[in-house]
Amino acid sequence: MKLNALELDALTEIFNHGVGQAALALSELAGEEVLLSVPKVEELSKREITDKLGAQGANRICAVRQGFSGPVNTEALLMFPVDQSLRLVQLMVGDDFPLAQLSEMEQESLAEIGNILLNSVVSSVADMLHIEFEGSLPQVELGQVADVLHAGSGLDDLILSLQINFEIASRQIQGYLVFLLDVASSDVLEKKLAAFIESLS
Amino acid sequence: MNAGFFPAPTDSRLPVWLDWVLSNTQAGLLLLDAQMRIVFANKWFLLRARLTADQVTDGVLMDVFPVLKGGHFERALVKAVRSGFPALMSQTLHPSPFPLYAPAGSRANDALMRQSIHIVPMGPVDTALAGQRFTLIQIADVSPTVARERLLKAHADRMSDLVHIDALTGIGNRRFFDESIAAEMRAASRSGASLALVMLDIDRFKQFNDLYGHPAGDRCLQAVADVLKRVCRRPRDLVARYGGEELAVILPDTHAAGAVQVAKEILQKLRERQLVHADNLDRMVVTLSAGVCATQPVASDGPELLIQRADQALYAAKNDGRDRVFCFDTTRQMAMEA
To answer: In Å, how far is B306's CA from the nearest CA of chain A?
Structure first.
């Protein structure tokens, strides 16, 4: 898949609508305002994503994974450097943790936060591009970026990637949301996107 | 209700073990139809909700459990049913949405059960088959996990205390000092506040030990630490044993003048204790020397220079005759008597 500037703009708009919905839900949950934004949508190689997360000092990341199936099959992954995932849960729960890692119960709350975000984003894709999806429950994974992305051989494969900025109580947390798509699903998505852009003009 | 999709339990097409499986599943199961009416609740759920099947079946969920109305659970449920995407509600963010209790007769039966909830609406394919979207709510009891994690954290807190406290004096140790001064430097550079450090040393402590023995030396250190704790009472003041007979006080939001005042008060309060020290020249009691330095750090500053200057002031106080406070003057770049 190689999306043009117009298609990437359309996706940015759709994703921003989705994270807007998620921000409302997360604000209700946190009891204070949570701001979310998607500065840009890009197609990046797994290598570039690994480098970007590495630049934040993260060899190990914490990810929330959810599969969506239907005409478009995708694995959606919301990824944070481990220390950022700790801070996010800490800010949402309003608690401090003496442990250096998320406990089982805290991992579950990260799964809930990721679930809200992923469901909202995929919902707006479903609504605006008219694609029906079957969803699944979220899973939390900890590990090296390359392992979580199943990079293995295809380090140069392009994947649809969004940087997501969280702002809670004037603190900033940065995460990445990527969609792993097979070739057939990429084709369907591109056709639906073209139809969506057509309908706007 | 859709009789085609959900035949009565007596229907011969259902395997006989299905009812048995549902009754013995060790998690709560609730099935809702598209109008949010309860179609089915399993035995595990009914037992912990302290209700019978007749009291819940065909009732609208929010009427049967009014406590759910307008809360996070209702919002999550509505969103899941609308989008068709499963949702998770974690115990940490919502401890106990449903009024569920341990089964009657159990020891902790008055505490609300800690719950981890999965809301699974039918996807588009099954919804088409069933003629409407049913939603399954699964509830797991995570109370034991919560109790275990609480215990683990209490241990972690205790370990952290042990690692940071000086066993003899009960004030912070060198590790605590190093971590605290670095953290306070960062905090001061963010807020633009002044940070002061006081370094203190017991005068002629070696002679004290030689004369009275090490157990008496230990008691002397404990007495000095006690004076420091009593004088530095603001919530953010930090008192630590820097090493041997050297102690340190970190004073956030404090200028040099304020820190000098604190140092002088410490020296005075210790003199008033009149701990006998026959080999402290002509003073005859235990005394302290102190060095003070204050700074308004910028983000790139480490604590090294602040520590070095406070130390420099302390040694100037020693060289000047002990039992006095010197302060590092940042304009003249030298330690002066305060």
So the answer is: 29
Q: Is B288 exposed, middle or buried (0-12, 13-18, 19+ CB in 10 A)?
A: buried
Q: What is the pLDDT of residue B3?
A: 44
A133 touches chain B (CB under 8 A): yes
CB–CB of A4/A67 below 8 Å? no
Task: At B70, list the tokens.
Answer: 């307008």
CB B111 within 8 A of CB B102: yes
- The answer to whether the CB of B28 falls within 8 A of the CB of B42 is yes
Rounded Cα distance between A147 and B293, Å, is 50
Judge whether A111 is closer than 8 Å to chain B, CB to CB.
yes
Between CA A107 and CA A149 the distance in angstroms is: 19
The whole-angstrom separation of Cα B141 and Cα B150 is 16
| pLDDT mean over A137-150 | 87
CB contact (8 A) between residue A105 and residue B91: yes
Find the mean pLDDT for residues A85-95: 82
Q: Which of B193, B190, B172, B323 is nearest to B248 (CA)?
A: B172
Start-to-end C-alpha separation, chain A: 23
**B245 among known catalytic residues:** yes
pTM of the entire structure?
0.72
Whole-angstrom distance, CA of residue B291 vs CA of residue B248: 10
Catalytic residue among B245, B246, B304, B337: B245
Q: Which two tokens stand for residue B135?
A: 């939603």
* Binary contact (A106, B93; C-beta < 8 A): no
Q: Which residues of A touch B80 (CB under 8 A)?
A: 119
Q: Can you point out the beta strands (E) in A29-168? A: 34-37, 41-45, 60-68, 74-81, 139-144, 158-168
Asked if residue B319 has pLDDT above 60, the reply is yes
In chain B, % of residues over pLDDT 90: 78
Q: How buried is residue A200: exposed, middle or buried, by Cβ count under 10 Å (0-12/13-18/19+)?
A: exposed
Q: Which residue type sits at B121?
A: P
Q: Which two tokens stand for residue A54?
A: 């590495």
**ipTM here:** 0.89
Does residue A146 contact residue A50 with C-beta atoms inside 8 Å? yes
Q: Are strands B325-329 and B334-337 parallel, antiparallel or unpaired?
A: antiparallel
Chain A positions in Cβ-Cβ contact with residue B127 (cut-off 8 Å): none
Residue B108 confidence (pLDDT) above 60: no
Q: Which of A178-192, B20-34, B125-139 has the lowest mean pLDDT?
A: A178-192
Q: Which two tokens stand for residue A21?
A: 């919905």
